[in-house]
Amino acid sequence: MGMILGLTGGIATGKSTVVSIFKSMNFPIIDADVIAREIVEVGTPGLEQVVNAFGSEIVTVEGSLDRKKLGEIIFSDEEKRKKLNKVLSPFLKEAILTQIADKKNQAPLVIVDIPLLYEGGYDKFMDKVAVVYVPEEVQLARLMKRDHLTINEAQQRIDSQMSIEKKKQKADIVFDNEKSIQETEKIVKKWVLEKNIDNITD
């Protein structure tokens, strides 16, 4: 039975870089962002519950979720954002845990990529949690550059999550992503080798 490694970080800390390194080593990836989109596809109970909570104006004429409209509703209203999370949380959790159960017998290591892992209480379902870390000033600079944001806009987005320093303290494993992608790759592969996980490929 494989190790279930929860992988998280903060916005613009480079979590997707680390995910792609594990993917290149052929470890299965469970992607919470992909699942979050799947649970609100046309005809799903998830979409039905969102419509019950926010009204039919968040659905397009084709019957799919109008993400832009929903985003406008929840982005400016924290209570509505919490409401959406509460509605979708059971569907997301069920789908993630189902995929973990399916994949844990197929590989020596299964990566569960969840941006809000600690915030959602998913750490209790993981064998270990790894945090992709950069110092907050690096995070801020990268986010401003990546998304063309002002310092205030970038700081607001960072402040909406648990701080990266707090996540670092809680983590079982810290993957430092402050230097080059090549350096990060060395760190991740070294950890895999030390754990004697034999799925690694060149």
TrEMBL record:
Keyword ATP-binding: yes
GO BP annotations, alphabetical order: coenzyme A biosynthetic process
Pathway annotation from the record: Cofactor biosynthesis; coenzyme A biosynthesis; CoA from (R)-pantothenate: step 5/5
GO terms of molecular function: ATP binding; dephospho-CoA kinase activity
Location in the cell: Cytoplasm
Keyword Repeat: no
EC number(s) recorded for this UniProt protein: 2.7.1.24
Main location, first listed in the record: cytoplasm
Top-tier EC class: transferase
Annotated positions binding ATP: A12, T13, G14, K15, S16, T17
HAMAP family associated with the record: Dephospho_CoA_kinase (MF_00376)
Role played: Catalyzes the phosphorylation of the 3'-hydroxyl group of dephosphocoenzyme A to form coenzyme A.
NCBIfam families: dephospho-CoA kinase (TIGR00152)
Protein family: Belongs to the CoaE family.
Protein name as annotated: Dephospho-CoA kinase
Gene (UniProt): coaE
